[in-house]
Amino acid sequence: MSILRRIKNKFSGSKLQQEIEAEIKAHIEMRVLDNVASGMSPEQARRDALIRFGNRTAMRERVTEEDAGMVWDSLGHDLAYAARQLRRTPTFTITALATLVLAIGANIVVFSVLNALILRPLAVPNPAGLYNVVHQESGYDNQSYPDYLDFKTKNSTFRDMAVYRIQSAGLTAGKVVHKSWYYRVSGNYFDMLGVQPAQGRVFHASDEHGPNSAPCIVLSNDFWRGRFAAEPAIVGTTVHINKHPFTVIGVAPAAFHGTDVFLWPDFWMPIVNSPDDEGANFLSGRTMHNLFILGQLAPGVSPQQATDNLNAIAQEMARQDPADDGLSARLVKPGLMGDMLGRPARAFIAASMLLAFLVLLAACANLASLFAARSADRGREVAIRLAIGSSRWHVLRQLLCEAVLVSLLGGAIGTIFSSALLRGLTRWQPFPEFPIRVAVSPDATVYVVALLLSVGSGLLWGLVPQRQVWATTFAQVMKNGPAGTMVFRRFSLRDLLLGIQIALCTLLVTASFVALRGMQRSLHAPLGFAPQGVLLAETDLHMAGHSEKSAALIQKRMLEEARRIPGVTAAGIIDETPLGSGGSSTPVFRMGTTDFRQSNSVFGAKYFAISPGYLEAAGTRLVSGRDFASGDDAKAPHVALVNETFARRMFGTQAALGLRFMMGQAPFEIVGVVEDGKYDSLTETPWAAMFFPLEQNPDSDMSLVIRSRLPPADIVPELRQALLQIDPDLPFVFHSWPDALAFVLFPARAATATLGVMGLFAAMLAVTGVFGLAMYSVSKRLKEFGIRAALGARSVQLMRAGLGRPIAALILGSVTGLLLGIIASQLLSLIVYQATPRDPLVFLGVMITMAVLGLLATWIPAQRTLHVHPARLLRED
Amino acid sequence: MARNDLQGSLDLLILKTLSQMGEVHGYGIVLHIQRASDDLLSVEEGSLYPALHRMEMSGWVRSEWKLTETNRKAKYYRLTSAGQKELQKAEKSFEQLVRGIRAMLRYA
């Protein structure tokens, strides 16, 4: 009964107010009538009635507060009042909104990325307990197929274990060859993940019967729609992959994009099949590490138990086969290519989240000081309301209401903007030749976080001026006027808030400077080759059905054709370009080694196969010895070029030229030493590297490296024409080498962009903060300045009085922020190449930036102080 | 010692008034308390209404807008059976309070 009434009251709040009003009126009028009847004058009677009744405002408030159900009603009033107050001060409202939109928006964007890439489980029907099994050694995440089979059959802790490998191939449907990225997966892959086909069927473990027994593929939904126009009849037809026939047996559901969040494959193929004539070899080679193992824990098994179990198996395997020497296992969260992308991605996103949060904190500090100033201006109003019987709690609640209302509004607008940005990011394909996707659309979690951030920040900055309200006494405010001039005598809360804000902003500005310098350095770091002016033409000869044996001949013709093109100064071939999709490494041994266990090796070295002329085309400097020549062919003795790191680590100070080493149980003679370079990433520790003649190590995967005097794009048409004559079916990807490096530079670029945007936000916040406080302190004391100017004060004195505090806060805050930035350098070095804030240029840059920002922010207030006009000011008030 | 504070006393006065007078408006309750207590008890008249509102929310009283003898609209309150029970409880606890205080006074 009473609950119903409460609910009713909730919806008819204003009706209740009217009723209370009417009841009070009736009461007072009856009292007046009685008073008059007892002989008072009408005025006296009314006065007496009002006195007897007591405080009507307080009574009304108490009635509305009487039951909990009414809280909502009074909240509605508070909100309406807050909205009115905010409309009355549009400058404050717009400043606060803009600040919050930026700060909360930045947080939502970063959180969405965090959510999509790290927090959210893989988009498979049953993601619980899925882990990649990698080696304990970090950065070494790939496994071999025989090791996988051992792990799978011997373990007692996994429900199931599958394996996948990411590859590219030319897919021919109709007449067009299209380079596709795809997964080769074990037969149980779909069943383990619980993925059901959208069309046709998927393959199962029972379809595998040894090498090349299951020539079928399952298309991804996107690829099916994009390439085959969502034609259901495609299921059951045959397509050619690297010229080998495969049957399309089904289409995956639209929500399934494979088991990596970044890399979306076009199709899936059983791992026992190969379009490259190398299937048997790779399935039996225990040292061929190029697979990702994905396992799902059995119910009730902890990751630690599973790790222990796998390590015990690994030790047993190492005892049985020297190829598994030193094998170990570790579980990592799936989705980011084992730990290869996971480690840097997690570090980068965590650091960005921290920075975004600092932006929000700085924004809150800014708004808190603005809001405190605004509440101080409303001291008189607050005092009057307290005096006529409003409770302090009620006044506080109204102030909080204003803060939360603005924050919610800012958060909502910020969410709208950032959602649009995130949708754009999701559609974006940064590298046309790689199936890289950044699927970061916001979901319910993101919206909940946005709401929490908005309310939280509103409470944070709304609570700051509350102390003022508690301290308000009626008499003091009425006497002193709204400014509460005493506040300026001592170090106030506002100064502290401004200091904190400036410190945070300086920290962020420092971070972006450090990132920019790091980026600049990484662009100018010695790469071991000179990408400028070089055109790359990449292909895989398998795509046109060539074998490794026939490769040498075709490659020789390609080089001849390329060198004939006008403007070309040098041309060469390398199997995989350094800083490309990542070269492989293998252990090397000293001469005389007989036991080729990994623990007996000197080190692991990167290896590449190159044609004669590659060094010149790539611009790699030969330190000593000679380049390969056409005589270094399959019949000639094994030779190699090594880099300086290799020479130093293998032979110390001894000259390496002419010396020999062992690899794959065979000796190699060093005929030349080349300069060091970057091979995997810009941030790697220097690798030992070796180069072999392409003719002694034929490879179908190849990049033509062509240096020319003309811009790379200008020779593409002629080169394409020439290559078409050699084999019309061979698809090439052409790009300039600097463009191809965009992939490697992407993390650094993304980090720099992120830090740059944060730094820009921070700079804007610093300006608004200093400007706000300076403007406020000047405007409050304009009258005083007028009098002082009239009495002969010099403008320097006035400036010191008006701007001293903001500038002191600026200087102290900047120094603190810079120190914090130096302390945080460890964090920055995780994400930015060669990040060090101890760089004098960074130091200077931050100082100058903060000084310029300070000048910018205090310019207008200073102008106002200088042009103070005593007579006009005194007339005003 | 449940609710033996000043608010409890005001509740008791209001409930008792309603039980004695049947249906009466707020002003009438004030008049009755003053008259019945020989002007010893005078409440701040406005403080009656929050109490009445709370009692109505708790279902102890029921209200209705009616015309007074002088043809003026006023809100009339009447005790419900829940209110009747509440009155008994309040009277009992008030007796306890009075007995307690009297015992204290005698002891001192």
Please tell me about this protein's structure.
The complex is a heterodimer of chains A (877) and B (108). Chain A has 877 residues and is an alpha+beta fold. Chain A has four domains: 2-71, no CATH class; 130-334, no CATH class; 344-523 and 745-876, no CATH class; 534-744, no CATH class. Chain A contains 29 helices and 21 strands. In chain A, strands 13, 14, 15, 16, 17, 18 and 19 form a seven-stranded mixed beta sheet that branches. In chain A, strand 6 and strand 7 (244-251) form a beta hairpin. The model of chain A is unreliable at 481-489 (pLDDT under 50). Chain B is of the alpha+beta class. Chain B has one domain (6-107): Winged helix-like DNA-binding domain superfamily/Winged helix DNA-binding domain (Arc Repressor Mutant, subunit A, Orthogonal Bundle), CATH 1.10.10.10. Chain B contains four helices and three strands. Chain B has helices at residues 6-21, 26-36, 48-57, 81-107; strands at residues 24-25, 61-67, 73-79. In chain B, strands 1-3-2 form a three-stranded antiparallel beta sheet. In chain B, strand 2 (61-67) and strand 3 form a beta hairpin. In chain B, helix 1 (6-21) crosses helix 3 (48-57) and helix 1 crosses helix 4. Chain B is globular. Chain B starts with 5 loop residues before the first helix and ends with a helix. Classes of the chains: A alpha+beta (877), B alpha+beta (108). At the A-B interface, helix 1, helix 2 and helix 4 of A face helix 2, helix 3 and strand 3 of B.
